[in-house]
Amino acid sequence: VTRLNRKEGNIPTSTIKITFKDVNNRNTFIHTGLQVDSMQFNAEATSQNKKSVQCFICLQYNHVTKYCKTKQQICAKCGDNHRIEQCTVANDAIKCNNCKGKYLGTANDCPNFLEQEKQMLNLINQYSSTSSPTITT
Questions:
Q1: CB count, 10 Å around CB of 109?
Q2: Rounded distance between C-alpha atoms, residue 12 and residue 4, angstroms
Q3: What domain of life does the UniProt record list for this protein's source (predicted)?
Q4: Tens of pLDDT along 93-129?
């Protein structure tokens, strides 16, 4: 059980987050809510972020720039160690840093991105209600 705080000022809110290890217990809790003494509190499932996160320093997946251990910026256009603004590679020589395909390293049609997205959806579905699986669009 965790109390959620506001982003500005880190002020506690009246909302709490309860994490369950068991999907059945989670679904029962969402259905019945929480009763404390004579007070009844409704519960609702959180909406999940369905997009994979990608670092804009190293262009790898599963972490964001804030937590990147790489110090050198990787160019999304050619995969070399410089910022995309400094890239001199022609548009017909674009190369994805993740799969070496002919598109930017931030492209949503990269097979590595699609695989990361699939893994994310599988994780969401594993811990979500079995009656409403998440599907890609």
A1: 10
A2: 6
A3: Eukaryota
A4: 999 999 999 999 999 999 999 999 898 888 777 766 5
Per-residue pLDDT tens for 5-40?
888 888 999 888 888 888 888 888 889 988 889 999
Where do the domains of the chain lie? 2-41, 49-106
Angle between helices 23-32 and 111-127 (to 10 degrees): 60
Q: How many Å is the Cα radius of gyration of the chain?
A: 21
Find out whether 6 and 14 touch, Cβ atoms under 8 Å: no
123-133 core/surface letters (b: 16 or more CB in 10 A; e: else): eebeebeeeee
DSSP for residue 86: G
pTM equals 0.58
Q: Backbone phi, then psi, for 113, in 5-degree steps?
A: -65, -45
DSSP 36: E
For the chain, the first-to-last Cα distance in angstroms comes to 33
Instruction: Quote the DSSP letter at residue 23.
Output: H
For domain 49-106, say whether CATH 3.90.320 is its number: no
